[in-house]
Amino acid sequence: MALRAMKKEINISRLSSLVSRLNTTFTLLCSNPSLPISSSGHLVLGHELLGMNEAGMFFDIMLHAGTLLSIFVVFHKKITDIIVGCIRRNPEQLKEAGYIILASIPTALIGLGFKDLLEGLFENPRAVCVAELFTGILLFTSQWGPTGAKHPDNEGVKMNWWRALVTGTVQGIACIPGISRSGSTISAMMFMGVNRKYAGEFSFLMSIPAVGGAALLDCIKWFKCQSMTPEKALLDPEKAMKCVDAGSFTPELLVGMLVSFIFGIIALKWLMTFLQKGKFQHFAWYVWAVGILGLILL
Fold first, then answer.
1. How far is C-alpha 279 from the geometric centre of its chain's CA atoms?
2. Whole-model pTM?
3. Distance CA 113, CA 41 (A)
4. What's the total number of domains in the chain?
5. How many CB atoms lie within 10 A of CB 68?
6. How far apart are CA 125 and CA 298, in angstroms?
7. Model confidence over 185-227: pLDDT tens digits?
8. Is 25 a member of any domain?
């Protein structure tokens, strides 16, 4: 009897471990920002409706790393051309780099300036559902933009300084959970008449400073939390509370990040294909379904 009970306990432990690993991997997949469906919104709703793991600080770092790696792999030629072009003082590539930097300024101002307000929205799942519905409207109406699906022959206009600023502002607003960063920025560029393919490329290239900056801030906070001792926690309980969800490296998290990285590459290529074929607006049906279902179940 004792042996049978022990075997049963071991099996339950293994099942629990498997469920935990699947949960971690599924959470990372849902939080992958390669598709225009709002990864942050899916994390909030996944936690509320499915009991998915809450994203800790180390989780965020791993997510940022996986995101950057997938972008570098898919757009390696474009990134290399910009870097080499800047070194060789190529006017076109210098201009391209300038637009990315310019777009990053309003994103940083909004992200840092409204940090507390934006973080508070992560505690409001119904607001996230409304934001998902808004994302759907952006995606669906993008087909009527000058370079949307309804105008397949329009090659579009080139990026310029004011379009870069507007796109960067939209990226900053997309810090709101439920509003897709890639979906809103690509839609905005198509509304401004930017070439569809270029809009997709620029959307992810301009995300590199934003994602890299977020990763750097999370790394700094995580390392500070590692030096938190019980004595320091007693002296500064508020700071100690912020380190509760710091998290740490686990094999499950590494596996999840690798799966997310591979999925990110596939999703990015799929998105670019959809975009060039004029099917970008079809993602609206999915985010509308998520938003409506969330409002019904919450």
1. 21
2. 0.84
3. 21
4. 1
5. 17
6. 8
7. 999 999 999 999 999 999 999 999 988 887 777 777 777 777 6
8. no
